[in-house]
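Q: What would this complex look like in 3D?
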Amino acid sequence: MLRKLLIGTALGSGLAFAAHAQDVKEVEMLHWWTSGGEAAALNVLKEDLAKQGFAWKDVPVAGGGGDAAMTALKAMVAAGNYPTASQMLGYTVLDYAAAGVMGDLTETAVKEGWDKSVPAALQKFSVYDGKWVAAPVNVHSVNWLWINKAVMDKIGGTEPKTFDEFIALLDKAKAAGVIPLALGGQNWQEATMFDSVVLSTGGPEFYKKAFNDLDEEQLKSDTMKKSFDNLAKLVTYVDPNFSGRDWNLATAMVIKGDALVQVMGDWAKGEFNAAKKTPGTDFLCYRFPGTDGSVVYNSDMFGMFDVPEDRKAAQVALATATLSKSFQSAFNVVKGSVPARTDVPDTDFDACGKKGMADLKAANEGGTLFGSLAQGYGAPPAVANAYKDVVSKFVHGQIKTSDEAVTQLVNAIEDAK
Amino acid sequence: MTTVTTQIKLTPEHSARPGVSMRSRLQDALPKIVLAPSFAITVVFVYGFILWTVYLSFTNSKTFPSYALTGPRAYQRLWRWTFESDPPSSWYTSIINMGIFGFLYIFICLALGLFLAILLDQKIRGEGMLRPIYLYPMALSFIVTGVAWKWFLDPGLGLEQTLHQWGWTSFHFDWIKNKDFVIYTVVIAGVWQASGFIMAMFLAGLRGIDGEIMKAAQIDGATTFQLYRRIVIPLLRPIFLSAFIVLAHLAIKSYDLVVALTSGGPGGSAWLPSNFMYEYTFKRNEMAVGSASAVIMLMTITAIIVPYLYSELRERPR
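A: Here is my prediction, written as C-alpha cells for the whole assembly.
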C-alpha cells in the first residue's frame, strides 16, 4: 500500500516536472477591480490574452479594496509566491523594486517603444534603476471640477477661470439655495481637493517644488499659507453634514442636483456615466480654476514580479496587451481615465475624455505633469499620509489657523521622511 | 531496550510492573501529548510573534521587515507624540480616546448589565423572551453594529432627520460628525452591543446565589438595597472579574467598530491605538512605529490586567 503510494507520488511529481519544462500558459493577477464598470473594463484584457491562449487567474482578495489587496500581496511576496502581476500604486512599485522582487520588462519596452509613448513623469514609477518593472494602465487626473449643468444654468453661472471667480460662482449657488460644494469629509478627499488648491494658488512651479520635491522653503512659504486660507474659504461652502461622507455619495449629490460642484479626480466621471449622464448636456467638466494647462495625476500600474522562467512568456504577453493601443482605449473609455500612452487615438472618448487626453499630452510636453501628493504620487506613503493628516485636521478644526497648518505640515513631512 | 529485558529476566516477580507503568505513564502523558500541538502553535504564533514585534520595533522597518537593529527611534517618536496635544498628534488622540472609550465602555457595560440583570431577576413574566432581546446584539459583528449605528446617528439620515420630519426641528444631535464627541458615539454603539451579554453573565451569577442566604438576610430585616449592596454584589465578585476581562479585551481590540462607525472620524479624531497600529504598519509603511505602538499597547494591558488577576486569583482560596 505504502509502496504504491510512494510510486504514485513519484510519478505525480515527475509529471509535474515535465509540465514545468514547458511554459505555463497562465497569468496570475492580483487586483481590486471588482465593481461593475471596472470589472467590465478588465474583461477586455482577459479576452485579449485568451485569444493568445493565456488563461487568466485572479488572486482572491478577502475584503475588496486596495488596502486588503496590498496586505495580501505583502504576504504572498514574503512567502516567495509572486503573482505574475499586481495592480499597484505609485511608490509601492518602487518599494517592491527596491526589495528586488520585481521582474525586468526592458526588452519588451524597447521593442514596443514605451520610452517614447509613456509620459516621462509616469516612467518615474514604472522604471526602477533603468529597468521597466511595471506597465501603467491609465492616468487619472485630480484637478477637475464636476458641475451639474441644470443647476449651473439655473444660477446663470459660467466657467470659473480663477479662484476668485470660483468663489463668486459658489456664492451664487449659495444664494440660490443649493449646496455649493459637494465634499466628502475623509482625509484623502480633502487632501485631493487641496492638491488642486495649491496648484491654483501657487502655480505649477510652486506645486512641483512643494509637493514633489518637498522643498521646505516652499512648504513653509506664504503661498502655502495662502493655499490653506483658500482651502478654508472653500470649506465654508460645504453642507454641515459632510464629515465622513464617501466620495461617490458626494458625486451623487451633484448628479441629483442637490449640489453644484464637486472637486474630484476623473474617476467621478464613472459615476456620471453609470447614472446615464452625458458630458456637456447633463454635466460639465472643467479644470480646477487656475490650473488649466497643468495635470496633477495618479496612475494605476500593473507591477510585474520576478516570476520563474516558465511564466515569463505569459508576463510579457500581459504587459504587451496592457500597453496596446486598443486596450488602452477600450479600458479607459469605461474607467473614466485617459490612456497611459500619449499616442492613442481619442475617437472613442467623450468630451471630457478628449479634453483629458489633450491636457495630458500638453502637460507632458510642457513639463507641467505632476504627481498628486494626496494620491501617493508626490511622495512616499508615510509623507503622503502625514500630509493628509494635516489637511484633514485643518478642515475639521483641530488645526485652527493657516500659520499653524504650515508649521504642522513642515514638521509632519520632516518627521515622515 | 536491552536493560529493560535483562531486568525482566533477573526479576521475574516484577514482570507485570513495567507494562503497567508504561501504560500509566502513557496515560499520564496523554493530555500533554494531545495538548502539545496547540501549545506549540500558541508558543510560536502568539509569544513568538510578540517577540518578533518587539524586535521589529527596534529596527527601521518600513514597507518590509528589516533586521538591522537601529535603536529606539520609533519609541522616541511615539514618546514625543504622546505630549503633542495642540494640535493633537494621531498618537495623542489614540491614547486619549482609548482612555475615554475604555473607561466608559467597561463602566457603563458593567453598570447597565448588572442593573438589567437585577431587573430581570425579579421573577417577571416573559423573561424568556426579554433575555434574548438584550443578548441578541452580541451575535452581530462589530461591522454590522458600526454600520447600523452610523446610519442611525447620521444627522442627514437617521435620528435627527426623522425627528425633524416629525416636527421637532430644534433637535440637534451631530456627535458622529463632531471631532470632540465622535468617540462617545463609539461608546454608545459598543455599549449597545456588549451590555446584553454582560447582563447574561450577571444573571447567571445571580441565579447561582444561594436563596437561603437571601432569606436569612430578609429575616434579619435587611432592605432590598442593603441586600444587594451587602450580599449580592459582593457575592458576584468573580462575575465582575470575568466581565471585566471580557470587556477589557473587547475595548482594546475594537478596531473594526471605529472603522465601520466613523471611518476614523473627522480629522482622525476617533482613532484608537489599534487603528494607529494598523494605519502605520500597513498603510504608511512605517512598520517600526506600528510595532512600537503594538508593544506599548501590550505593555499597558499587561500593566493593568496582571496585577488585577494576581490579586483576584490569590485571594480566592482564603
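A: To summarize the key features: Chain B touches chain A through 28 residues (CB under 8 Å). Residues 1-16 of chain B have pLDDT under 50 and may be disordered.
Q: Very helpful, thank you.
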